[in-house]
Amino acid sequence: MTGQMQKDCNGFDRRYDVQGLDAIDVAVLDTFPAVREDDPVDYPGEPSEIVITTDEFSPVCPWSGLPDFGRLEIRYVPREKCVELKSLKYYLTSYRFVGIYHEHATRRVLADLVKLLDPLRLSIDCDYGLRGGIRTVVKANYVAEDQKTAEQKAQ
User: For this protein, what reaction is catalysed (predicted)?
Assistant: First the structure.
């Protein structure tokens, strides 16, 4: 076997097809009111922080098409809307065949949820599994303009 044939047979040049960013199903996302209109009780204290985690976030590498697995954590303080969890699961699952780098995937989830929810604050942390002995953790944060302190506004 020649060197090139052996290389091809071993899969070094193999690449799996990936879907583009248009496969991310933003339309499936749904919301519900953060406060029930029929609840006669005022909610005391600071607004609630909602934390959602999944170990099943799995976009694919845009170069190889191989799956990446990450533990995704979403933290947000709602303004008026909360994300409905089943719709969020379908949204996150739509990344399953999308070729996207870790950094872009994390920021894309942040951007889509900020647009959907208009939260007071939102952060996304994604801890991707080891690849070649390298671990990647990507954090993306959003603070609504009306929630920023003077110091944050100056930056």
Answer: 7-aminomethyl-7-carbaguanine + 2 NADP(+) = 7-cyano-7-carbaguanine + 2 NADPH + 3 H(+)
68 is catalytic: yes
Residue 11: exposure state from Cβ atoms within 10 A (0-12, 13-18, ≥19)? exposed
The DSSP symbol for 41 reads: S
pLDDT tens, residue by residue, 1-46? 444 444 555 656 776 788 999 999 999 999 999 988 888 887 777 8
Of 25, 61, 118, 127, the active-site residue reads 61
Q: Specify the CATH number for the domain of residue 80.
A: 3.30.1130.10
CB distance 112 to 26 below 8 Å = yes
Does 84 show up as a binding residue in the annotation? yes
Look at residue 80 and give its three-state secondary structure: coil
Active site residue 82: no
104 is in an annotated binding site: no
In the chain, the number of structural domains is: 1
| 89, 109 contact by CB (below 8 A) | no
